[in-house]
Automatic annotation (TrEMBL):
The keyword Transmembrane applies. The chain crosses the membrane at residues 49-69, 120-139, 151-170. Residues 9-20 have a biased composition (Basic residues). The lineage of its organism: Eukaryota, Metazoa, Chordata, Craniata, Vertebrata. Residues 1-28 are annotated as: Disordered. The keyword Membrane applies. This is Uncharacterized protein. Keywords: Membrane, Transmembrane, Transmembrane helix. It comes from Zosterops borbonicus.
Length: 199
């Protein structure tokens, strides 16, 4: 046996007691380790295939959303005037808020104002009581005023009668000049009567 053959048999390579590919063979262990290293790569490839399938399923969904995406600029263009309107309304909202704040402060001051008015209201209560007491008197006066038209009518009728009396007085007044002229006539007749001899 040559030295090379003896070395080959001593190393166990090709020995009839140790078949090629045994677990004791260093060459077989190297192949198993290589396969073991490839298992994670296979798993990664499987994951990649699953991801590709998922993406392929999502393609129809993306296709249906493309019209919506295409409409988005017009929707944004429509909302710009609305945003401008809202921007214009901001000063009004600020004014409203200030008005509300002023109202709140006034409401907060109201209790003190009410407390100040209570004495005034208390002073007016006796006046109200006096007015209530005067109501019956006012009612009596109203009844008297209601009776006054008949009294006025009677007075008018009384005033309407004097013209007849005035007319009579005027007739008397016309006789006054006649009475005034009688004294001279009497005076002129006295001498004539004196010359008449006695019978």
């Amino acid at each position: 046996m040559s030295p090379s053959e003896a070395k080959h048999l001593h190393s166990g390579h090709g020995s009839h007691n140790r078949p090629h590919g045994s677990h004791d063979c260093p060459h077989g262990r190297h192949e198993v380790a290589t396969v073991a290293k490839g298992i994670p790569m296979v798993a990664t490839v499987a994951k990649t295939v699953f991801m590709v399938a998922t993406v392929a399923k999502a393609i129809p969904v993306v296709a249906t959303t493309l019209p919506t995406v295409a409409m988005t600029p017009s929707i944004v263009a429509m909302t710009i005037p609305m945003v401008a309107t809202v921007a214009k309304a901001i000063p009004m909202v600020a004014t409203t808020l200030s008005t509300v704040a002023m109202t709140i402060s006034m409401v907060a001051r109201t209790p003190s104002m009410v407390a100040k008015t209570i004495p005034t209201v208390a002073k007016t209560i006796p006046v109200v009581a006096m007015v209530a007491m005067a109501i019956p008197m006012v009612a009596k006066n109203i009844s008297m005023v209601a009776k006054m038209p008949s009294m006025v009518a009677m007075t008018i009728s009384m005033v309407a009668t004097p013209p007849f009396m005035v007319a009579k007085t005027l007739s008397v007044a016309t006789t006054i000049p006649m009475v005034d002229t009688t004294p001279p006539t009497v005076a002129t007749t006295i001498p004539t009567v004196a010359k008449i001899p006695p019978q």
